[in-house]
Amino acid sequence: MNAIPEFPTAVPVSYAVPTSLGRLHVVEYGHGPETIVLWPSIFTDHHIYDDLVATMGASHRFLLIDGPAHGQSEGGTDEFTMEDCAKAMGEVMDRFDLVAAIVGGTSWGGITAAHLALMSPARIKALVLMNTPMQINAAQPGLKARFIACGARWALKTAMFRNGVANSFFSDDVLAANASYANAFHTMLKTAQPASLAAAIQSVILRSSPLMPRMAELTVPTLVIAGKEDAMYPIAVQAEAALLAPNGHFEPIEGKHISVVERPKRVADALTRFIASEVAE
């Protein structure tokens, strides 16, 4: 494992950071007075943030965390809670001596960051919830959610399953224009350990509780970014969730579920404005 450097890096540097959820792969990149800690969605890894850090890395430092069983992070066969993920995110921050930071993520990553904000608000300078489920309910998962959760282990290696996930996550024009990303998406899923990845996906889908009733408890500045064509998480629900946060901001963006891949420049602009207005230097 690489030692943690004294200063931020101008090129991406990878670490295997021990946490209570196993060793998580963390990528550090960029310079700046503020550190942005991000956790990706299920079925993806830190590469969804490549264009974002390329745009903002000259002025901000990033720590990108692959979730358990995703990317190069370890995974097990035991399920875990979103509070467990939040604890692991905090442990990564501890490893980099970060008392507080701008913290967020996409979908699963947003849920994780929100739970860290609820558990330890003093560690959060600002919260960024990108394409984050607000009403996911493990007690009553929908048919599609049950199919994804239960089918992941067995169907992961099939192109049909992977294409179905990709078509839910990304607009057709984005997949067509980003062949390298589409290939990386398929490669990660094909090479993942099915039992470990299934355990992680089932944990997110079947062991989460709705964020909507707790949005009013988020006392930190909160930015909600949502895809206008995201059929999984309707834009009206996302807007309502942002309004419930005491210091909530809402940014609707063209595209489906992974806005940071679909419209990275728009996400970077929204994040830059949010940090400028809400995070004291």
From TrEMBL:
<dbReference type="GO" id="GO:0047570">
    <property type="term" value="F:3-oxoadipate enol-lactonase activity"/>
</dbReference>
<dbReference type="InterPro" id="IPR029058">
    <property type="entry name" value="AB_hydrolase_fold"/>
</dbReference>
<dbReference type="InterPro" id="IPR000639">
    <property type="entry name" value="Epox_hydrolase-like"/>
</dbReference>
<dbReference type="Pfam" id="PF00561">
    <property type="entry name" value="Abhydrolase_1"/>
</dbReference>
<dbReference type="InterPro" id="IPR050266">
    <property type="entry name" value="AB_hydrolase_sf"/>
</dbReference>
<dbReference type="InterPro" id="IPR000073">
    <property type="entry name" value="AB_hydrolase_1"/>
</dbReference>
<feature type="domain" description="AB hydrolase-1">
    <location>
        <begin position="36"/>
        <end position="264"/>
    </location>
</feature>
<dbReference type="GO" id="GO:0016020">
    <property type="term" value="C:membrane"/>
</dbReference>
<keyword id="KW-0378">Hydrolase</keyword>
<protein>
    <submittedName>
        <fullName>3-oxoadipate enol-lactonase 2</fullName>
        <ecNumber>3.1.1.24</ecNumber>
    </submittedName>
</protein>
